[in-house]
Amino acid sequence: MDLRNPPEASRDDVLEKLILDADGLRRALTRIAHEILERNGGPHDLILVGMRSRGAPLAHRLSSLISQFEGTAVPVGELDITMFRDDLELRPTRPAIQPTVIPRDLTGTTVVLVDDVLYTGRTVRAAMDALLSFGRARQIQLAVIVDRGHRELPIRADYVGKNLPTARHEQVEVRLREVDGTDEVVLLGQLRSGTNHA
Amino acid sequence: MRRKDVLDLDDFTADELREVLETTAAMKEVLARPIRRVPPLRGKTIVNCFYEASTRTRVSFELAAKNLSADVVNITASGSSVEKGETLVDTTRTLQALGADMVIMRHGASGAPYLVARELEASVINAGDGWHAHPTQALLDLFTVQSRLGSIEGRRVAIIGDILHSRVARSATWGFTTLGAQVVLCAPPTLLPIGFADAVNTGLRAKGIVTACPVTVTHDVDEALRDADVVMALRVQRERMDSGLLPSLREYSREWGITRERIAKARFGALVMHPGPMNEGVEISPEVAYGPQSVIEAQVTNGVAVRMAVMYLLAGGRAGPAV
Fold first, then answer.
1. pTM
2. DSSP SS3 for A180
3. What are the start-end ranges of the H helices in B211-318?
4. Most buried among A7, A181, B80, B188, using CB within 10 Å?
5. Residue B4 maps to a domain
6. What 3-state class would DSSP assign to A154?
7. B101, B312, B314, best to mutate vs chain A, most A CBs in 10 Å
């Protein structure tokens, strides 16, 4: 979730570059699903927790891929980290809270946190803090579709769909058919002011 | 929600009420976690300032604040400088000087929290002022009805009992009608406030809310119960006998008490509510209060989640622009 650079109102000034199309996204998820199974020696004691909003559908997709490969369903949770954010005080109004659903006690499980974009790492920090309320997981791992760099905390991903070097003023959008009606990853770079009028 | 205080529901828009109800649902989930503590009010100091007796409201505000990681200080009139004659405004200024970020106030005088809210930079939440308003009680009533019946709009809510002295009835009337429900106020003629229904109907039109006759008044309990989706009984205080407003509790109970026979006149499956504390056998019979239609216990449970939602939403609003 890239809340610090909200999408601009005027799309005319924005240059959009396709990073992954629907097939590319599918292949990345398939590889991540295999990597999760390989690293953890199978689907046992695994739980996939998607961070709202786009991590949740991604976690469900990974779960159904894993059950295709292994014949065993992996439980999926959905986590809202709003109340654990470290920038609440910087906002004029309190953001809306989405429901959190964690299907079981996490004690002894391996949790794979799933999100669309890894950027500063602050969302992941908040998510780990939030997970502690649901029991002591044996291990927490992180899966993301895009790692765009610019970390502000000592956090790294265990499973990455694509490493994408970016500039801070650029934005990465992971669009999913469940939310956006289409599957693609794009890089949005703003044209310098004035160039679009040239 | 962009406001400093929550003093009554008369100045709430329908969207603000919905925001509180949605946030309350999220807070209920927090309360179901093995560890019921979230950090959004970390480092904030909340003062619970109760000038009137209360169990459920005070405890539920305190639990709500602690679940949000705030520091809580409790003040009651007895044992504080109030006994030495300190005025309300002076007490309040002291609280501010001590660093209170939010003041929860219960006071016997209608309007007292408004005076305090004007004096303080801190947020003020009215936890009941005289006969005037009790907004968080009304919000938990709205939440309870919404979660049990699925919707509030178009519902018929009968509020039966001592409306005249009831801050719960006043705030609930504003809340339910703002969300598009009809409210019927039913009481003995001596316990019905003159002009309140008209004031709400006028106020709703000013807010742009158009429901046919949102608030009506009757003395006939059977008339009030007809087609009701929600029946809210109010406590009758024994003091009212002494002031001559009621001849006897037995007479009240016979004419206006909610019994099993009476509740059958409401819509099938209608919810039975009571803000507590109850006088069982007076305004409500025990078999109704503890019967299958009763949501009285759910009201108390939802109180913590509703107050968490209100505190969470109020704690924004005064910071600078978003980064």
1. 0.90
2. helix
3. 221-225, 239-242, 249-256, 260-263, 286-289, 296-314
4. B188
5. no
6. coil
7. B312
Is A94 within 8 Å of B315 when comparing Cβ atoms?
Answer: yes
Q: Domain A22-165: give its CATH architecture.
A: 3-Layer(aba) Sandwich (3.40)
- Give B160→chain A minimum CA distance, Å: 35
User: Count of CB atoms within 10 A of residue A197's CB?
Assistant: 7
CA B172 – CA B170 distance, rounded (Å): 6
Considering the domain architecture, whether residues B149 and B165 belong to the same structural domain is answered as: yes
**What stretches in chain B show pLDDT beneath 70?**
316-323
CB pairs < 8 Å spanning A and B: 71
**Mean pLDDT, to the nearest integer, of A131-138?**
94
What span, in angstroms and rounded, lies between the C-alpha atoms of A126 and A123? 5
Kindly report the nearest CA distance between residue A49 and chain B, in angstroms.
16
If you measure CA to CA, which chain B residue comes closest to A86?
B40
Q: What are the chain A neighbours of B1 within 8 Å (beta carbons)?
A: 93-94
Residue B321 covered by a domain = no
Provide the token pair at B26: 């999220």
Residue B20: inside a domain:
yes
Task: For residue B203, give both structure tokens.
Answer: 């106020």
- Does some domain include residue B8? no
Could you tell me if the ipTM is greater than 0.90?
no
B121 with B229, same domain?
no
